[in-house]
């Protein structure tokens, strides 16, 4: 240490140097990335411009392109992004299970070339469609390379993190049109179905599907009108804590529409249901949306502090097909019928079979 | 008598050092060949099969500007050029950068457990990334997203804070730097834990950053990172003499004519810049920066002039190989693969090292 020069002076100049180095580097990122962006964007058009025609040509070499009158079309997705579609897509990738169902329900199933992994495996016709997105180690893994390799000309993705934003950005940078859909309520589900119809040239089929779904909803509304609304707790999970439904969620809306009085967590963001709050709300019916994951009425009865709840005392605990109730697709009407018949067993409603198809 | 001893010692030293140099040269050539093979293999494999001839044709046409006749589809070109190549090159550059930064930090701090993340860069970058995920706005400055920008800024801010705080602390400068880094890192980790706790549905996004990945590599991102890492690595390499001096201890270094404070600050800033650029584009990938420098030192001894370039090659090789394996196994976290490949190899060499291995 003794051999070092007076610390006061060099310290300052070094500090300034370090600061200058860091500042220069920060600027360098900005400067060089500006240069770097122009290079690939100049190179990209040659690669991507021929991509769509080449892909469609290889898919249906014998059919001459006869653009339907609805195309080209400009559509606005649920995030407000305007997406241009030059011609009717015939190689579609669906990145949400609900959209896979919608595409098959409106007669565009034969154009689906890739899909997201679906635990419900619905519809059965989609069984052999290649999976291009699955749950992996770090969340949803979208295989962009596979989507490109399939010659995809339309991707329908999920909003609010359903599809990773990075994957959406990457697909768009490769000039593949991406429609992002996110339905926070039942009306938005109708809108998404109609948007999908417009995007794939099946607007009429989409309208017909929405009409038939609305008739299911009307049927339930008519059947449960005037009936007493029981307090309903809908359980969405039991690990590590008990989870119910948040305020303003689609669950809350569905229970209301099915003629129940939803017991919510009282927060729009938290789904965890504190036992004290649940006991205070005293639900008359407990619906186990997590029944498919092994939660049983017996297990619920044994939970500490739950014995005094009216629903537990009366044994009013029932399991339900959670996917049918909450998947924002064509079977939502079936889900509502299922929910309504669980809440109002006294009302005679057509109960859909577990594998009911949409519409 | 004395002169004969000196002459013998000098001769032995010269012989020793030439042997090591020769060994280093062999390793460098071998490493570069292996890296070349790994790069081509990495570009040639993926979820979509592209014929090896087409892969080489595309690379020759786009990289070497050769007039190769086009026998491939535009889709194949997009996959090779826009998806695989930037990713593979980014893995190479990040691996190189982390290994060079690791060598520098280990030498600078004279601590075998030092790695590029030791002075708070990792926790600073992670907190920056988490904040970017939680802020509900999406901006893009010159093709860099908010996440990359805040991760980069977070890493640099953290290391600058550690440096400045350690200057006012008592004790040996290197010890106080390490301890300050540890203390500030813990504080930032607590903030990160809080951010993760509050993140709700976006937790996966933060978690994905912590695991690290090259999934979202693009040409623009690669350009920015390459510039900083390449310039930083070259500037460190020309300071190899100072690094050698510092490895002998501060007083010895000062006697050798090294301006200890100045050189230390510059090396620290350069290594931190490289680390910040690497973690901004790829997230936190451990192990490469810690172990590659040790592997190289076991082979060629502690001379930084040899260790720095060989670590650069080794880091690039390990990262490209690990990322290719990770990609083939369905996008596993690359940090898991670097450890699985590297740790057993490291343990094997550590056991085989005849003399006790030291920095």
Which characteristics define this entry?
heterodimer, A: 359 residues, 6-stranded mixed beta sheet, 13 helices, 14% strand, B: two-stranded antiparallel ribbon
Q: Can you offer a commentary on this structure?
A:
The complex is a heterodimer of chains A (359) and B (359). Chain A is built from 13 helices and 12 strands. In chain A, the strands form 3 sheets. Chain A has a 6-stranded mixed beta sheet, with helices on both faces. In chain A, α7 runs parallel beside α13. By secondary structure, chain B is an all-alpha fold. The two termini of chain B are 33 Å apart. Chain B contains 14 helices and 2 strands. Chain B has a two-stranded antiparallel ribbon with strand order 1-2. The interface between A and B is large, with 58 and 68 residues.
**First-to-last CA distance of chain B:** 33 Å
| Record field, number of beta strands of chain B | 2
Largest binding interface between chains? A-B, 58 and 68 residues
Kindly state the number of beta strands of chain A: 12
Task: Give the assembly state of these chains.
Answer: heterodimer
Strand content of chain B: under 5%
Give a short overview.
The complex is a heterodimer of chains A (359) and B (359). By secondary structure, chain A is of the alpha/beta class.
Draw up the topology in text.
The complex is a heterodimer of chains A (359) and B (359).
Chain A: H1 8-49, H2 51-59, E1 73-76, E2 82-85, E3 92-94, H3 97-105, E4 112-116, E5 131-136, E6 139-142, H4 144-149, E7 154-158, H5 165-173, E8 178-181, H6 186-200, H7 203-224, E9 231-235, H8 250-257, E10 261-262, H9 275-281, E11 285-288, H10 297-301, H11 310-313, E12 317-319, H12 322-326, H13 332-343
Helix pairs in contact in A: 6-7, 7-13
Chain B: H1 2-44, H2 52-63, H3 74-109, H4 121-134, E1 140-141, E2 144-145, H5 146-168, H6 173-198, H7 203-211, H8 219-237, H9 240-247, H10 250-255, H11 260-282, H12 288-300, H13 304-328, H14 334-352
Antiparallel strand pairs in B: 1-2
């Amino acid at each position: 240490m003794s051999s070092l020069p007076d610390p006061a002076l060099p310290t300052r100049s070094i500090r300034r140097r370090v600061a200058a180095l860091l500042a220069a580097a920060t600027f360098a990122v900005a400067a060089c990335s500006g240069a770097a962006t122009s290079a690939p964007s100049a190179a990209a058009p040659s690669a991507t411009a021929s991509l769509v025609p080449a892909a469609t040509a290889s898919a249906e070499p014998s059919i001459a392109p006869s653009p339907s009158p609805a195309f080209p079309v400009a559509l606005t997705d649920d995030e407000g992004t305007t997406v241009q579609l030059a011609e009717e897509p015939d190689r579609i990738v669906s990145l949400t299970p609900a959209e896979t169902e919608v595409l098959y329900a409106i007669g565009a199933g034969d154009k689906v070339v890739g899909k997201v992994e679906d635990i419900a495996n619905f519809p059965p016709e989609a069984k052999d469609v290649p999976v291009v997105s699955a749950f992996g180690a770090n969340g949803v893994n979208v295989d962009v390379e596979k989507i490109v390799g399939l010659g995809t000309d339309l991707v329908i993705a999920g909003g609010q993190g359903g599809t990773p934003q990075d994957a959406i950005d990457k697909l768009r940078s490769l000039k593949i049109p991406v429609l992002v859909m996110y339905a926070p309520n039942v009306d938005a589900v109708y809108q998404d179905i109609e948007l999908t119809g417009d995007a794939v040239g099946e607007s009429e089929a989409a309208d017909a599907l929405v009409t038939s779904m609305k008739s299911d909803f009307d049927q339930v509304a008519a059947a449960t009108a005037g009936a007493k609304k029981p307090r309903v707790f809908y359980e969405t999970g039991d690990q590590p804590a008990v989870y119910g439904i948040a305020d303003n969620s689609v669950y809350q809306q569905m229970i209301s529409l099915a003629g129940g009085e939803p017991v919510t967590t009282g927060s729009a963001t938290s789904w965890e249901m504190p036992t004290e709050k649940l006991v205070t709300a005293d639900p008359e019916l407990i619906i186990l949306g997590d029944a498919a994951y092994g939660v049983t009425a017996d297990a619920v009865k044994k939970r500490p502090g739950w014995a005094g709840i009216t629903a537990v005392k009366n044994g009013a605990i029932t399991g339900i097909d959670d996917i049918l109730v909450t998947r924002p697709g064509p079977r939502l009407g079936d889900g509502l019928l299922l929910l309504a018949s669980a809440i109002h067993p006294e009302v005679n409603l057509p109960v859909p079979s577990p594998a009911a198809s949409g519409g | 008598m004395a002169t004969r001893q000196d002459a013998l010692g000098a001769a032995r030293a010269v012989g020793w050092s030439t042997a090591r140099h020769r060994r280093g040269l062999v390793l460098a050539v071998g490493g570069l060949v292996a890296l070349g093979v790994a790069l081509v293999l990495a570009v040639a494999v993926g979820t979509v099969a592209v014929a090896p001839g087409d892969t080489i044709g595309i690379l020759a046409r786009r990289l070497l500007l050769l007039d190769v006749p086009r026998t491939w589809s535009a889709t194949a070109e997009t996959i090779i050029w826009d998806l695989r190549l930037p990713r593979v090159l980014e893995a190479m550059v990040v691996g190189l950068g982390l290994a060079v930064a690791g060598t520098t930090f280990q030498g600078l701090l004279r601590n075998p457990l030092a790695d590029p993340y030791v002075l708070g860069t990792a926790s600073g970058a992670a907190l920056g990334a988490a904040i970017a995920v939680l802020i509900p706005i999406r901006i893009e400055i010159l093709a860099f997203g908010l996440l990359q920008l805040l991760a980069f800024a977070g890493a640099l801010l953290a290391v600058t804070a550690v440096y400045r705080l350690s200057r006012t602390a008592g004790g040996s400068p290197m010890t106080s730097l390490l301890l300050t880094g540890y203390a500030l890192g813990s504080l930032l980790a607590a903030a990160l834990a809080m951010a993760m706790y509050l993140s709700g549905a976006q937790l996966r996004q933060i978690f994905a950053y912590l695991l690290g990945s090259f999934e979202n590599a693009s040409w623009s991102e690669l350009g920015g990172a390459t510039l900083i890492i390449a310039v930083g690595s070259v500037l460190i390499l020309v300071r190899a003499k100072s690094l050698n001096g510092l490895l002998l201890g501060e007083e010895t270094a000062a006697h050798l004519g090294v301006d200890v404070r100045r050189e230390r600050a510059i090396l620290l800033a350069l290594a931190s810049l490289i680390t910040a650029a690497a973690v901004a584009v790829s997230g936190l990938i451990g192990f490469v920066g810690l172990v590659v420098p040790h592997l190289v030192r076991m082979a060629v001894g502690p001379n930084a002039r040899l260790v720095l370039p060989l670590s650069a090659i080794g880091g690039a090789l390990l990262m490209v190989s690990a990322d290719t394996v990770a990609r083939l196994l369905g996008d596993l976290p690359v940090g898991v693969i670097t450890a699985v490949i590297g740790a057993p190899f490291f343990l094997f060499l550590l056991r085989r090292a005849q003399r006790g291995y030291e920095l």
